Amino acid sequence: VDDESSLRTALFRVLDKKNYQVLTASTVKEAFALSSSGVDVAIIDLHLPDGDGIQLMERLKTTYPQMQFIIITGNATIDNAIQATKRGAFHYLTKPFDIHQIDSLIERALLQKSLVQENTQLKSQLQEKYRFENIVGQSPELMKVIELVDRVADSDATILLSGESGTGKELFARAIHFNSARSAQPIVPVNCGAIPGELLESELFGHV
C-alpha cells in the first residue's frame, strides 16, 4: 500500500518473481477493499493520501489478527519506528531501501505468522482437551464437582482444590484455567512442597 506507483511496480515485479500473489493499492480505501482477499503480509507506507499507515495497520489487525505488517516511510524518525512496532508492526523500513531486502523480511514475517497460528491452534487444542465434559466419570459426587467448578471457572474467586493424591486435582485446575477468562494467559504450576515455608509467600505474592 503506497501512493508511489514506481515503488509499487518495483515491489510487485520482485515479489511476483518469487511466486508470491501480490495485491497493490495506493490508498487506505483501496487497501480495505483488497484485504478481504486473505492477505498474509501487508507492506504499508506510513503516509497515504487518505490516511495514516499505522492507523490502517491497527484497523486491519483488529479484523485480521494474524496478518503481519511492514511499515515503510521516507520520513523516518525514531518515534515513528517505536510507535509502529509498539502498535503491532513486524518491521519498520526507511526509504530508500534495497528492494530485495523486502523478500527476506517477508519470509521472516510469514514464519512469524505461522508461529502465531501454531500457538493459537495449540491453545485451542488445550482448551478442547480440558473441557469439563472430557473429564471421565459417572459418579454423582464427580458430577457435582464438575458442575461446581464449571460455575466458578470464569469468576475471579480464589479456588482451593483438595483431595487425595491421584484424584485429579491438577486435571481440574487445568480445566478451570482453560475455561476461564484467563485461558489465553499461561498457567503456572508451582510445586509448593519444593519451596521452604519461609520463602513460599514471597515466591507466590512478592515482598516489600
User: Mean pLDDT, nearest integer?
Assistant: 83
Please count the beta strands (DSSP E, at least 2 residues each).
Answer: 5
The share of residues in extended strands comes to 5-15%
Main sheet overview: 3 strands, parallel
The number of helical segments is 8
Cα distance spanning the termini: 51 Å
Counting helices, strands and paired strands, the structural category is mainly alpha
Shape: elongated
Spell out the helices and strands N to C: HHEEEHEHEHHHH
| Sequence of strands across the biggest β-sheet | 1-4-5
* Share of helical residues: 40-55%
Report on this model:
The structure is a single chain. Helix 4 (78-86) links the parallel strand 4 (68-73) and strand 5. The protein is built from 8 helices and 5 strands, in the order H-H-E-E-E-H-E-H-E-H-H-H-H. The mean pLDDT is 83. The chain has a 3-stranded parallel beta sheet with strand order 1-4-5, sandwiched between helices. A two-stranded antiparallel ribbon has the order 2-3. Helix content is 49%, strand content 9%. The chain is mainly α and 208 residues long. The protein has helices at residues 5-17, 28-35, 53-63, 78-86, 101-129, 140-152, 169-178, 197-205; strands spanning 41-45, 47-48, 51-52, 68-73, 91-94. The longest helix is centred in the middle third of the chain and has 29 residues, at 101-129. The N and C termini lie far apart (51 Å).
